[in-house]
Specification:
490 residues, mainly alpha, two-stranded antiparallel ribbon, 21 helices
Length: 490
């Protein structure tokens, strides 16, 4: 089933590009057709994943179906569908190449699924680059806007550097495996085979493995925008279209986070090397949460604020990876689902408000609840979700991540993560207070696009549902994680 849905997504993306070249593809109203078809594609893909829930087949040993892979497919399709719905609220803004826009969204999702579903370093790199190149183009979608061009240039250059680090690190790992293999059989880059070779090595962990893994972590750090590899994030978010920023903030990052967790816990679980990557990730998480929050406090632009806050949010996600346990992996997946819905909702509100004539500075949101009660309630709901207010999606995810860190012996990491909740409440509630209590500069009322209101209402219901009744989702995640070979064997 996994191969079927990958083929379906590939054909759908190519068909979208071909349809975008047809006569009249940039006429008013055509964007709604493209968007509706794209949402249908994501819906069918998610349905195929659910139908193949118990499928455990493998494709040439590099693509492996699992329950966690199917959860990843549903998550990536949910992200793509929400972003597409946000674009459909004002498709005429994206009329120049609207078909190509949705095509690149499909390929971003496809790349993410490849990362999550693979057990091979080369396919992981392929999925990462497919997702990255699609978002490089989307960030520079406003070709006549110098800010969009600047954001795309910075994102592309730093992304290329990150890929170079990643490939260089993989080459070191390959070389280290060649020294560790005792037979004449070819060196395999499958995660499980790497772990087996290292576990059976008579000479211990090859010295070359440490710099290789360090270079790979640098590359993944760039892709996840972790400190100190985060400098591109605020500029990319501010300069790109709001819905592209929404996709960029959660789409590739969700896939990279789940893929990195699978890679490290499967290929490098042995006691000789696991403490090295756990400590590295723990310090990156600490720096990301702390610096991301402190920088977000200083922002006046809402998109830059969300850019820095995403750095802090990914710091929490990395806690689940650093713990290296089934509990931590389940917590990061749940947290990523809630964060994806909430953050895309926040960016969609910002995009809809911008379409209604409200600029992106925090002061421009003064009295928003009085000017437009619906948009004010939606904005407040999503920002409270990002802050992690109880009974909303972000709260339980943070709680489970902190518990996993304590249970895994990373007490300092858990304490610093808990302390970082305080500054995050400050800047999220700064926007909320401005929207509710501040006197509006402009007293004219307005209404949001009905399509935007519908999409945002569905997303907000999801945020509340995950906060109030997360049991079904959490049970499915726990079942999927515990079925993975690296945790089932423990």
């Amino acid at each position: 089933m996994l191969v079927v849905l990958l083929i379906f997504l590939t054909v759908s993306g190519i068909a979208t590009f071909l349809a975008a070249t047809s006569k009249g593809a940039e006429q008013p109203g055509v964007g709604q057709i493209f968007g509706g078809v794209t949402i249908a594609v994501f819906g069918v893909t998610a349905l195929l994943a659910l139908l193949g829930w118990n499928d455990t087949s493998a494709f040439y040993g590099v693509l492996k179906s699992s329950q966690l892979a199917h959860i990843g497919v549903v998550l990536m399709c949910l992200i793509g569908g929400l972003v597409t719905a946000g674009v459909m609220a004002n498709p005429d803004k994206y009329r120049a190449g609207v078909g190509e826009f949705f095509g690149f969204v499909i390929f971003t999702v496809l790349g993410g699924i490849l990362m999550i579903a693979t057990d091979n370093l080369l396919v992981l790199l392929l999925g990462l680059e497919l997702s990255s190149y699609s978002t490089y183009i989307l960030v520079g979608y406003y070709r006549d806007d110098r800010y969009s061009n600047e954001a795309a240039s910075k994102y592309f250059l730093l992304g290329a550097v990150a890929s170079a680090f990643l490939v260089f690190g993989m080459s070191f790992v390959y070389g280290a495996l060649a020294f560790a293999v005792t037979s004449n059989s070819p060196v395999s880059l499958n995660y499980a085979d790497i772990g087996a070779v290292l576990a059976q090595s008579a000479t211990g962990i090859p010295p070359l493995m440490y710099p290789g893994l360090a270079l790979m972590l640098v590359g993944f750090g760039f892709k996840l925008a972790l400190v100190p590899f985060h400098s591109w994030t605020p500029d990319a978010y501010q300069g790109s279209p709001s819905m592209v920023a929404a996709l960029l903030s959660v789409g590739p990052k969700a896939a990279v986070a789940i893929a990195l967790s699978s890679l490290l816990t499967t290929a490098f679980p042995m006691t000789g090397i696991a403490p090295a990557w756990q400590q590295a990730l723990a310090w990156m998480a600490i720096l990301s949460m702390t610096i991301g929050n402190l920088q977000a406090i200083q922002q006046r632009n809402v998109k830059r604020l969300l850019g820095y806050s995403s750095i802090a949010q990914l710091g929490y996600v990395v806690i689940g990876i650093a713990v290296g346990s089934s509990q931590g992996t389940a917590a990061l997946v749940l947290y990523m689902i809630g964060y994806a819905i909430t953050n895309i909702g926040a960016f969609t509100v910002i995009a809809a408000l911008r379409d209604a004539g409200v600029n992106d500075d925090i002061e421009d949101y003064a009295g928003l609840v009085r000017r437009s009660p619906v948009s004010g309630v939606l904005l407040v709901g999503f920002f409270m979700g990002l802050a992690g207010v109880p009974f909303l999606a972000g709260f339980l995810g943070k709680l489970l991540l902190l518990k996993s860190a304590v249970d895994g012996g990373l007490i300092l990491l858990a304490v610093i993560a808990a302390l970082n909740i305080v500054p995050s409440y400050y800047y999220y509630f700064r926007v909320i207070i401005q929207a509710i209590f501040a006197e509006p500069k402009d007293t004219r009322t307005f209404e949001l696009n009905p399509t935007a209101v519908t999409a945002l209402s569905v997303a907000l219901i999801g945020v509340v549902f995950l906060g109030v009744y997360p049991t079904p989702v959490l049970e499915a995640i726990n079942q999927a994680v515990k079925a993975l070979p690296m945790f089932a064997a423990r």
